[in-house]
Write a structure and sequence with these properties.
alpha/beta; Rossmann fold; 4-stranded parallel beta sheet; 6 helices; about 15% strand; globular
């Protein structure tokens, strides 16, 4: 845990500064640190005698179909399961693996969800900037970060790798 804190709180800001200074792609830097965080988290989880039971799937609101008339932020139960976005699939995954699914509009809402649910493990999806910020905010919690896909640009009808989420949840059941 100390190494993870050092990487995210000390090394990431230093690397980020140099990426910016050298006009390099900052998203590549973030991807590296997200992957590093995930390795630390998987290592910690694999050493646990009891696998985490209280798991939170924390998703951004931009995964919801932008023209959907049913706002599901904070209340995924409002989803009508039409299949136009991946919320339906995430709800099915949540039910199949008995994990909590929450959709947040941003950092403050995400922190409140985490505080109220008090998970043993978080699987979070977001864009690079929001994900690295969330990892730093939850430095003492085991969080697996998955970068979202943005086929239509930022914050609009984004996607998440459902197979990756399923694979992570499967590995926790072994």
């Amino acid at each position: 845990m100390i190494i993870k804190k050092f990487c995210l709180k000390v090394l990431y800001p230093i690397f980020s500064f140099f990426y910016k200074l050298l006009k390099l792609d900052k998203d590549r830097c973030i991807k590296f640190f997200v992957e590093l965080n995930n390795r630390f988290t998987f290592r910690k989880i694999s050493k646990l005698k009891d696998k985490p039971k209280k798991i939170l799937l924390l998703m951004p609101h931009c995964l919801q179909f932008s023209d959907c008339e049913y706002r599901i932020t904070g209340k995924v139960i409002k989803c009508k399961m039409c299949g136009k976005c991946e919320i339906k699939d995430l709800m099915e995954i949540s039910k199949r693996y008995n994990v909590k699914l929450s959709v947040a509009t941003g950092g403050t809402m995400a922190r409140n969800i985490i505080k109220n649910f008090n998970p043993q493990l978080i699987i979070a999806t977001a864009c690079e900037r929001d994900l690295i910020s969330g990892l730093i905010d939850t430095i003492n919690l085991p969080v697996i970060g998955i970068l979202n896909e943005r086929p239509y640009g930022p914050c609009l009808d984004t996607r998440v790798d459902l197979e990756k989420i399923t694979s992570i949840l499967e590995s926790l059941q072994r």
